[in-house]
Amino acid sequence: MTNLSEQKIIVCCDSRESLDDAVAHGARIAGIFGKELCLFRPVVSGEKKEKRDAQEKLEKAIRNLRDRGSDLPVSSLTLSGNLIDSIERLAEDYDGIMVILNTENLKEKLITLRQSSIPFLFVNGRMDKYLRYDRIMLPADDSKATKNMALWASYFGRFNRADTSVFAAEEKSAAHGDRISTNLKSIQELHANLKLKIDVRHTGKSSSRLYSEAVNESLNGKFNLLIMSNRPVNGIDDLLSFPEAKMIGQAQNLPVLVVNGNRDMYILCD
Fold this sequence. Notes:
Blueprint: E1 8-12, H1 19-33, E2 36-43, H2 48-67, E3 74-80, H3 83-92, E4 96-102, H4 106-113, E5 120-123, E6 135-140, H5 145-160, E7 163-168, H6 174-193, E8 198-202, H7 207-220, E9 225-229, H8 236-240, H9 243-250, E10 256-259
Parallel strand pairs: 1-2, 1-4, 2-3, 4-5, 6-7, 6-9, 7-8, 9-10
Antiparallel strand pairs: 5-10
Helix pairs in contact: 5-6
């Protein structure tokens, strides 16, 4: 994944009802980062008829893009199996750097995210204000994933002149507080090196309450992208529980970019 032209923004076209919405966001993201747009549909049964029908739907979606005047490089892709069967191939074999999905069958998609080395952007509708991607909410707690989240915020800053607000947690524990301070310093240095402005807000909220507060602030403050990480899996209860689903539902029509904090992340190439 060393050549800009190789990297792709993948749109998971698994629902006819919200296909146009996901493609609209995918086209916007691909345009921002200068990447190829790839419309992908999993073929669960693997049967030829299902694959043929899937290819026809993807080709129709590409024609619709062209009819609206888009000149983006666009490709289509079908793979046998469900999304979780395909996720590493999308990253490794097809150079995907982000997957854009609707919020239907959310828990199944969050299970797949736990295996993914590229982030998932969850979208719900295509309101104009949520297609701008120029006001970013970045929660910052003591987790290692915060730095990868900040890296994606910096991409939007560099390629879309987006403003980023860092929503910082506070903890009574000195160890947790030190890790938050280290993360904030790293975020500030990254943005300073790239000559990007950020606004750091100290919330007084613990890490466990930070994301819910960030969602509320995003909706009230007219942000158009929330970046978050999936929560660490600690035991069987966490395997069955998806706090990210609650946050995505709470976000309503606000796009939510979720980074897998448990995997090494692919880097966007200039």
